[in-house]
Amino acid sequence: MNMRTPLKNARRLGSAKEGADHFWKQRVTAVANLILVVLVMWLVLSMAGSDHATVKTWFANPLVGIVFALLGISGAIHMRLGMQVIIEDYVHGEGVKVVSLMLNTFFAIFVGAAILFAVAKLSFGA
Amino acid sequence: MAEAKTLRGGRAERPLSPHLQVYKPIINMVMSILHRITGAALYFGSALLAWWLVAAAAGPDYFAFVNGIMGSLIGRLILFGFTWALFLHALGGIRHFIWDTGKGYELSTVDRMCWTSLIASIVLTLLVWLLSGQFAATFAQAPLNYISAVG
Ligand code: HEM
Fold first, then answer.
1. Which of A7, A69, A80, B121 lies in disulfide reach of A108, CB 3.0 to 4.6 Å?
2. Ligand 1 center from residue A97 Cα (angstroms)
């Protein structure tokens, strides 16, 4: 028996008011990560141990910067969503939980921003 | 009415369901937990990638400094663990993609997928480090470094 109103079903948002949004973003970024991690791992291994000048020449190719930047974005979203679930599972005090969730957001954005900034600087040649 | 005050915030004590430690660890449960642990490890490990890129953006001196730390024995051991966590988590992700399609829930299939991803993660990690020449540098030299440090 379905006790929901038709509008409720149409919105598909359920009790958490966000429907399958969290799940779906986690999956989309997971697929993106899978592709990007393979590329970035290959790039990092190619650059590992090289000096600064050599690394700069790698970033002269726009595709290199784009791949790193995309992983920075996708990775930050994915890890924020993932850690959010971990916090919600284990942190029960309301205050600590709110603070942890906030710190989680800050950390993810900070890492993402740092990657984007560094990639921009390397790619635009400074 | 009988007083039901207990340690648990005044609510009546309810029987608790058996917790983790009463179960014999089996592969699907171990891999499920490892997916979460590696996710958390990668969460903090992502700062290493950011640090390396920021160092490269900062200039030759700071880049050489950070490369020195990451290339040290401890640095390489951490990166080795990072590589393994990444492979294990990525393969765990593929397991989840398969389950998301509604397939692969037979217990024998679950076990097979879990063992396959565990073994594959180890093989891929070793391959990456062997092929990049870093494995020998890290693990063959570790005892040598230790001996020369002691003697
Ligand atoms: C390499 C490609 C990756 C794939 C295919 C992938 C896949 C997934 C999937 C499917 C989940 C959800 C699991 C569930 O619903 O229970 C997940 C969770 C998670 N992922 Fe990833 N991921 C990848 C990379 C990363 C990276 C790079 C990070 C961190 C920087 C990360 C951090 C996390 C965290 C913290 C969780 C939460 C774990 C949990 O709830 O138990 N993942 N990942």
1. A80
2. 21
Q: Which parts of chain A fold into alpha helices (H)?
A: 6-11, 21-47, 52-59, 62-90, 94-123
CATH class of B27-143: mainly alpha
For ligand 1, the distance from its centroid to the CA atom of residue A30, given in whole angstroms, is 6
Q: Please name the member of B43, B67, B90 whose beta carbon is closest to the beta carbon of A83.
A: B43
Q: Specify the CATH number of the domain A22-123.
A: 1.20.1300
Three-state SS for B83?
Answer: helix
Token pair 């398969």: residue: B98
This model of the complex carries an ipTM of 0.89
Structure tokens at A24: 């779906």
Residue B145: how many other CB atoms lie within 10 Å: 12
Q: Mind listing the pLDDT tens digit for each residue in B121-138?
A: 999 999 999 998 888 888
